[in-house]
Amino acid sequence: MNSLFQLFQRSVEAAIVLRMVLALPHLPAESQINCNFTMLDGFQIIVDYVNQQPVIRERLQGFLFGYIHDFWFRQITAENISFFGSEVRTKNYVESFHATLKTSGVAWVLKRCKQ
Questions:
Q1: Which residue of 47, 56, 72, 92 shows the fewest CB atoms closer than 10 Å?
Q2: Residue 19 in contact with residue 76, Cβ under 8 Å?
Q3: What is the 3-state secondary structure (H, E, C) of 6-37?
Q4: Contact 49, 20 (CB under 8 A)
């Protein structure tokens, strides 16, 4: 996994793939009246793009098919990942809470008390 992280950092093409993958949940899980392009269609576009990039093609196969396709699409399912049409798209309230904990040091105090 560390080598994959480094690939995303060092390769412009791999970074583009990562951004494309992270955009998939913005697409609908199934065809809609106003959008007949689905998450699976987006995934196929990503695969087509990767297949045109010989430098990253082999290294991203496991990520794309072992993780994104098999885990996201088969186990979790697109219906549970897609937030197309949803009003709440981020968990900013959770991120804000974590940021507050980090700066206040409360988490470290609680950890010391538990020990």
A1: 92
A2: no
A3: HHHHHCHHHHHHHHHHHHHHHCCCCCCCCCCC
A4: yes
Amino acid at 79: E
Question: pLDDT tens across 25-35, in order?
Answer: 989 999 888 77
The pTM of this model reads 0.73
Please give the angle made by the CA atoms of 51, 57 and 59, to the nearest 5 degrees. 155
* H helical segments located in the chain: 2-10, 12-23, 39-51, 54-61, 78-81, 92-104, 106-114
Sign for the CA dihedral angle at 53, 42, 68, 4 comes to positive
